[in-house]
Amino acid sequence: MQKRREVNFHDFLSDVQRMHTEEMMVRDEDKELMKAKEQESQPSYLFF
Question: What contacts 47, CB < 8 A, 6 or more positions away?
Answer without folding.
Answer: 39
